Description:
- The structure holds two protein chains of two kinds.
- Chain A is of the alpha/beta class.
- Helix content of chain A is 36%, strand content 21%.
- Chain A has 14 helices and twelve strands.
- In chain A, the strands form two sheets. In chain A, strands 6-7-8-3-9-10-12-11 form an eight-stranded mixed sheet, sandwiched between helices. In chain A, strands 2-1-4-5 form a four-stranded antiparallel sheet.
- The two termini of chain A are 40 Å apart.
- Chain B has two domains: 2-75; 94-322, MetI-like fold (Orthogonal Bundle).
- The relative contact order of chain B is 0.13.
Amino acid sequence: MALLDVKDLRTTFRTDDGLVKAVEGVSFSVEPGQTLGIVGESGSGKSVTCLTIMGLNDRRSAVTTGEAFFKGDDLLTMPSSKLRSIRGNEIAMIFQDPMTSLNPVHTIGWQLVEAVHLHQDVSRSQARASALDVLKAVGIPRADQRIDDYPHQFSGGMRQRVMIAMALINNPDLLLADEPTNALDVKPQAQILKLMGTLQKEFGSAIVLITHDLGVVAEIADDVVVMYGAQVVERATVNELFARPSMPYTWGLLGSLPRIDHDVERLAQIPGSPPSLLNPPTGCRFHPRCKYAMSICQSVMPELLAAGGSATHLSRCHLDQATRDAEIKKLESGHFAEVT
Amino acid sequence: MTRYVIRRILWALVLFVVVTFVSYVIFFLIPADPVKLFAGRQATAEDLARAAHYYGLDQPFYVQYWKFLSRLVANGIIGKHAMGFSYANRQWISHVIKDRAPVTASLVFGGAVFWMLISVPIGILSALRPRSLADRGATIFVFIGISAHPVFLALIFLYIFGYKLQLFPIGSYADFFNPPEGQPGGPIQWAWHMFLPWCTFAILFAALYVRMIRASVIETMSEDYVRTARAKGAPEWIVMRSHILRNALLPIVTMLGMDIALGMGGAVFTESVYSLPGLGQAVVQSLETFDLPVTMGVVVFATTAVLIVNLIVDILYAFIDPRIKLA
């Protein structure tokens, strides 16, 4: 049984301008100890997917349908007290911006101890001892002194380590990481990713990693979900995705990656900007930016169908297999980056 | 920390000199002669000169101001002779203040407790349910509280609760510790007598604080660390207590320090209507009779009190907000 099984998840926000469909029919599953990467541009619905699973959307404006089974129980319909006992305990979350995600008026020790006490019936000193252990595990130097410091006394990278420590302190089975390296410089970025990989082996948690960086996905993910305009447009194992990417948006993402084996003047980019979720395009969401767009793409939304002959590989595109194969060949030769 | 306190005290001294000096100048600019008042209607020119000399009013104002300052320093600000005596009844100013300051302090600090007790729950409730019926009710309260003058409110309260319903005494004060012979006193009498004045005094500030607390709580609720607290699995009341309120009330503490100081000015109205023998009443009377030493005494005392309260609030703030470094 999958650890997390999300089926046809839909989240709609009521705003003053109208209904914003932020997540539309997203399905995926995560096996214990595995890493799923969710990739896509800003506004593609990646973060909202995670927040919906955690029940952290604003209850006044968000409407959610679908199912999200965690160990067989639907997170979306369970009573809030049960959901609270899972949050921070069996499912933990790391957020994008470590600068604002820690409470400025409490020491980091206080915040870690609080996380322990919310889920475990242990003494103060035991909670503090496990806080210290987990701070050491995430590589905070002089953790025994720094545990009584306030968040503003830490750098961005160190704060993200503290966030990771707080997420791991109750030994969760699933870790949702929402662009954990987004607000960091290059060096702490690499360190945090490496740390997450190491800790995953040590703690055995499954990870859902949200990112817009395919390079990161290639490094640590087992499976990948590519999102565009609130929908899943491609789903595959990491090897399948990089070997046989099967729709133009994914090609665009891959084409915009810097490659060590090819010199280019400028990295390719996908022209245009992501669609408005308030008033999405008809047909395929990607067609206004797609250079392969045909007339059918403007009127009929493609289904998420098996691609490339593998049961684990799905994509949402009207293109025929021959065209796709030709493009994949171009991509392999490195030619792709220039033609997009 | 020490350096910060020293700097603040030096600043306080400068402010103190400026405030008292300006008060002195204003007093001497008033085109009226206190000497005539004190010497009586039938006084001869010789009598007037003697009276003026007795009070020291025959000297230029800067000499008088200098004498006033040096007397303060020589006797210490709380010494018996530090501020001289009243022109009108020759009472030591230190006695006047010792008698009256507790009344004003009861009103201002009791009133501050009142307005916090009113505004914190109302502010939080209307932040939790913006645009709800309760929130709209709170908005109406805010409008009334801000618009109604304390004198008007005091008269209404006295008429309804004092005269018509006879629930509260009219125009008297009960001392907490040492009531004069034959008069009510003690904590219960004190609170009962102060209840209407507290309400009157607190309503304006309660209204302003409802607005501020509501805005501050709403702003804090959308902070990332509040989401983090929920993601940790914290129940809503812990999120509110340890994460939202702890941050949302930080700016309110600073405001409280300033408003308690501001409130001393506003206390004059409340004291007048309820006939409370406080500093406000004393200063009003002293202005009517050109009794300079009493005016100066109250100004000195109030300025010192305000400066001390603000210093305490600033130091306190450094303890509750770890990001502030006193340097």
